[in-house]
Amino acid sequence: MCCDLKRRFLLLYATQKGQAKAIAEEICQQAGAHGLEADMHCISEMDKYNLETEKDPVVIVISTTGTGDPPDTARKFVKKIQDTALPPDHFAHLQYGLLGLGDSEYMFFCNGGKTVDRRLQELGAQHFYETGLADDCVGLEVVVDPWIDGLWLALKEAFVLQNKKEGMNSSDISSALSAAPVPSHIENELNISSEVQKLKLEDEGVRSSDLTQKLVDIHLVASTRDAEPSLVHSVPPLSQSALNIPALPAEYIEVQFQDTHGENPHLSSLISEGTTFEVPVTKAVQLTREDAIKTALLLELDIAGTVFDYQPGDAFCVICPNNVSEVEELLQILGLSDKGEYFICVKVKQGTKRKGATHPQHIPERSTLKFLLTWCLEIRAVPKKAFLRALVECTSDAGEKRRLQELCSRQGASDYTQFIRDSNVCLLDLLRAFPSCKPSLNLLIEHLPKLQARSYSVSSSNLYQPGRLHFVFNIVEFPACPTRPVARKGVCTGWLAELVAPLLNPNKNTLDTKGISTSTEKISIFSRPNNTFHLPADPSVPFVMVGPGTGISPFIGFLQHRQKLREEHTDWEFGETWLFFGCRHQDRDYLFKQVHYELKCFLENGTLTHLKVCFSRDSTTAEVAPPKYVQDVIRLYAKEIARVLLKEGGYFYVCGDKKHMADGVSDAVVDILSMEMEADKLEAMKILATLREAKRYLQDVWS
Ligand code: FAD
After folding, report:
1. Which residues make Cβ contacts (< 8 Å) with residue 299, sequence separation at least 6?
2. What percent of the chain has a predicted confidence (pLDDT) above 70?
3. Which is nearest to 427 in space by CA: 442, 418, 437?
4. Is 32 touching ligand 1 by the criterion CB < 6 Å?
5. Which end of the chain is more exposed for a tag (fewer CB within 10 A), N or C?
6. Of 140, 162, 184, which residue constitutes the final position of a domain?
7. Which top EC class applies here (predicted)?
C-alpha cells in the first residue's frame, strides 16, 4: 500500500541574500532521489504552512543578518513564536532539523538560526536531527554538504518514529523509503572513475585512446611542470584520483531572444525590501589625502522632495550595477556581444526535472540582455560547486574539464577552498582560466545569485541638515594576483567613485562650499533601518562611541543630531559624550579633521565632550609609545568607561569594518569591567552580556 508513497516533509527557508534559499532548493532537489517530497516555502509565507498542526518533519534553513538578527523574511515568524503567552508544549508535536547559516567574522555567529532553534526547543519541539551551523567565513559547504548528506537518514528515522506514533507499521514505511530510486548519498553522486570519464567523453566524439593519452599527458605536465597546484593545475594525489562529483543539476531556465523593442524594468521592480528613491548626488568629498592607503569618500544625496526618512544610526542601501567592461567581456565570452541590447524573455523550462523550480525573483521576465547582466546578477560571486559541476558540461578541452571536475569533487575540496573561495575567483576569472568553457546564458541565470544592493550607514542627521543625506565609504580595491591579472575595485564603491569623479574637484574639497553642484547623477536607494543602533532616548544619559576608520560615519550623524537638540532645547540636560577614533596616519586619513572640520566644531561647542584618537602607522619619538588601536586607548580610560556603563546607565556604541576591532573592543571592555569591579573575567563577560541584552552595548560592524 505504501510502496508508492512519497513521504512529505516541510522545508522552510529564511533568506536574506539568497543563500538559505539556494540550499533549501538543493535539499528540495535531492529529496526526490531519496523518495521524499519537500513541501518548500519561504518562512514568510505563513499562509502556506501551519506549524501548529504540522505532523510531518520540518526542515528549516535560516541565515543571519545585521548584528545577529534573523533575516527580514523571518521577522514575522520569529515575532510569532516569541509570543510569551505560548505554552511550553505549544510545539510538542513538532519534529524538526535546523541548518543555520552565518559568518564567524560577526559577533553573533548564526544567531538567526540559534534564536529560532532555542525558541522551538522552549516550546517543546523535538530535534530529529542535530542542528548544523555553517560558517561563511570558512565556507558554508564545509558544514552544509555533510549536513544534507546526513539529513536523509535522519528523516527516514523521523518518519519511522512518526509512523510508530500514528500506529502505522514501521517496516512498511522503511521499505517504502528504501525502495526509493537512490537510497544513499553515495549513489546520488556520480562516482567518476577515469574509466567512466573515458566512456563519457567517448560519447562526445573523443576517441578513448586519444583521451587516455591526453589525460596521462596532462597529469605528467601537471606533476613535472607544476609541483605546486594552481587554479588550473592539480598535482598528485588529486590529479590521479577517482573523483566523486556532485550530480548534475537539472537545467530549469529557458531564455528566448526577442527582436522586439521596449523598456527595461524600473530598478524599483528588482527590490522587494521596500520603496526605492532615485536621488541626485549633490556633493562628493574625498576625506583622505592622495597618499592614504585607502581612499574614503563622503557623498551627499538630495533627499528633499522624497518621503525617504531616517534616524542617525540607520543604514540605507544603494542599488548598484556591475562594472561595464566586465559585462562587455562576459558578453563577448558568451558569444553574445552583438545581442546585448536584445530583449530576452526568461521562463522556467516546461517539464523541467528540477524540483520546486520557480522563476527567480530577481530576474525580470523581460529585459535586455545587458540589463540582466548589469543590474540583476552578481557576476563577481564566487561560483558554488554546483555551478562548477554545470560548467564541466560546457567545457570542450579534456584537461580543463578534468580540473573543473576536481574543483567540484569531494577529493578536491581543499583545492576549491584555496583556489576558488579564498581567492575570490569569479565567473570571469574562471572563463579566462578555462577558455574552452562556453556556458549558456540560462546557466548563468540559474547559478549566479542576485546582485545585492550595498548597505551604508547614514552619516548625517535630518534635523541638522534637512533634505540632505551623507554617507562615507572606502573605495574597496582588489589588487591583481596570480588568479586575477587585473586589479579591481568593489562593485558598488568602484562604481560610485567613477560616478562622482566629476564632482571631486580638489579645489572645492570642503562641505561648506557654497558652489551649486552641476551634477545630474542620480542613484537609487532604499532604507535599511536599524532597530537598535540609535541615540539613547534620554539625552541626559552619557554615551561612548568607538568608530575607527569609516566606522566614525554614524557617529557624525549622532553628533549632528545632538548639536541640533542642544541648540533647540537649551533647558535640557545632556549627558557627556565620548568618541574614540583611530586611523593609520594623522595627516592622511584622519576623517573629518583634515578636510571637514566637524569634529573640532563639535568639541568646541561642547556637543562632543571627549575625543580620543590614535594612529596605528605613525612613527613616534616618544619614550613611551602611544596606543595604536582604539581598544588600546579605551583601556586608558577604564575608570571613566566603567562609570558611564555601571553607574550612570550609559550606552556604548561600536561601529567599524573589522571583526578584529569589534572583538578587540569587547575584550577591552570585559577587562575594564573585571578590573573596575574586581570581578573575575567570567563575571565581567556576564555583565557585558547583560549590557548587550539591555541594548546598552551596541555594535554595527561590517566586513
Ligand atoms: P564588493 O565588490 O562587494 O567587495 C567587497 C567584499 O567582497 C570584500 O570585502 C571581499 O570580502 C569580497 N571580495 C570580492 N571580490 C574580491 C577579490 N577579488 N579579492 C578579495 N576579496 C573580494 N561600508 C562603508 O564603507 N561605509 C559604511 O558606512 C558602511 N555601512 C554598512 C552598514 C551595513 C549595515 C552593512 C551590512 C555594510 C556596511 N558597509 C559600509 C559595507 C558596504 O555595504 C559594502 O560591503 C562595501 O562598501 C563594499 O562594497 P563593494 O560593492 O564596493 O565591494
Report:
1. 281, 283, 284, 285, 470, 471, 472, 473, 496, 500
2. 87
3. 437
4. no
5. N
6. 162
7. oxidoreductase
